[in-house]
Predict the structure.
Amino acid sequence: MSRELLYGWGLTAPGNCEVQTVFDEAQVVDRMNKAPHTIARGLGRSYGDPAQVSGGVVLNNRGLGDIGRISDEGVVTVGAGASIHELLQLSTPLGWFVPVTPGTRQVTIGGAIAADVHGKNHHVDGSFSDHVLSMRLVTPTGAHTISPTVKPELFWATVGAMGLTGVITEATIQMIPITTDSVFVDTNRYANLEAVMTAMFEGDVNYRYSVAWVDCMTKGKNMGRAILTRGDHVEADQIEKPTLIGPQPPKLNVPFMPPSGLLNRATVRLFNEAWFRVAPQHREQEKQSLSTFFHPLDGVSNWNRMYGKRGFLQYQFAVSDAHSDTVVNVIKRLSESGVASFLAVLKRFGEGNASPLSFPIAGWTLALDLPIGSPRLPKVLDELDDMVLAAGGRLYFAKDSRLSPEKAQLMYPRLDEFRKIKNRIDPEHKLTSDLARRLRLVGE
Amino acid sequence: MENAFGQPQNVVVFGGSSDIARAITRKLCAARTSNVVLAGRNQKALNVASDEAKDYGATTVSTVLFDAEEPENAAKTVDAAFAAAGEPIDLVVIAVGLLGNQTEDENDAVASLRMATVNYTWPVTALAQLRKLMVAQGHGRIVLISSVAAVRVRRSLYNYGAAKAGLDSFAIGFAQGLEGTGVKIQILRPGVVRTKMTTGLKEAPFTTGPNEVAGYVMRGIANDSAIIWSPPILRYVFFVLRQLPTVLWRAVMDRQ
């Protein structure tokens, strides 16, 4: 039990909270009863403020880390505080992989459900919660075992709700079988945005995994030049000497905070240029490890410190195919504004699920990292919000650190439906977070 | 809550009808601020400032009356302002001050007491109460208006300068005591600003208007600057002025 200053991954807007690690359901119930305001926290990989509640009690779920036996059908019950990294270390040698993984393995299972994370396979497999068979949820009015068939309303209200319906203590997940620890990757370079979007629109269905890296700093005819990587798991009979080795802990670390401004327009432009040049024009069937393909940044601990004391943010939005032009217009606006932006990640989304607050909607999603510091940035992003809103799109709560409450309401038209369920299971609004307060997702 | 750019939603302003405070409030409301509490001594002036805040985008504005000559009520005033907001406060602006008239005040015990009370005792008392409430909140930011006059006291403004110097020094220790709490204080040191308060004062070099000051405050908040100089060049000007021998300092600052 201690008072700590908690930040999101972007290292902005901290809150001082009392942190209590919970080890079993009874402790969660007890601490939730005693706390005036509380929210669960996992590994703190959300960029903004969803896993902190200033002046309140943060329940660290890392004490709930048990990983059960994986059944012959690939079904496993996992404590909400276990990370995808820990799960994969155990499951990979047995031939099981997580059905969905975000760009980092350093997220907890509870966090993955709360943010309803997606991966490179959303266009085929949906988001993380689509593979959750059931879970245990502690709310201020009682604990529930919930699934898409048992109390489905509460199950779907919990998915993507950033912890605001309760503390998830464990989940039962359907894993997917693998016979090697490798992926065959096809890489293609495209000179502009239109070319890569066409290739993804037409060809992504042929791959289980697909993602493009887009340069948001080049202007003119090379605007939005991109590298598209797509792949599938390698089967044991496709290669000699197949192996099944779990992921390794990070080898590098950023041990201290360099001054802010190290990542500026000039250095980022240089990085983007190098990244683009190094990528092959066209390469097929390159064998990559699961870690290299899915979690390239997990090799470096604390890489968020590279942005310095001022921190950074990630802007991620989704729009439908009917509004593909919004992706083009956003990148155009960014490249014209001259704000520094690392290679952005462009992906196709399949259909969303039944959750009122889950982020994915069928179409496109674009995510980009931006350092805090440019005085133009707040205004530029407010403009992008309007463009996304006009296209019926939305921003991702797990990434947001600056949206306004009015626009959050418009982007998530089912918020009121969520609030009804929330009011039923948490009438005193005990479960809240700095994100919930900032976006007025629930009342105080 | 404050967002990643340091833009607050719920704001309390003490001395809310002052020109600098109004300029700051306008800029805040044009960004993310929706809930404002304006505290001051004149209801009419507060109403004007309050309408202005609404014009710039605030949805809820409340007012609280107080007198900075009554420091024994400062804690109550702070409590009343926080209660009026009804939500955790992201930013408190303290724009309380009295310039006085040096040549008249220096032979007047009551006036000298008033100068010390308004410029030092009231703010310090309020800060103690703010510290208690905001540390419990676990987050928040205070912008305290000091002055370049606090950097080195001068003959022609020593009642004001000395009180601001005391307040400024107090705030430096106060800031250090807040480390790790999630609460921050930022000291604003403006040069001469064209306002109601400085009417009649000689226009010094680097004099600005309230809107420019507010602009530097916005930038200072975004950058988490411990001390916000307005205009920023005064940081270097006063670095030099502070080193001058007294004879030279007086020749520069007190020439009539």
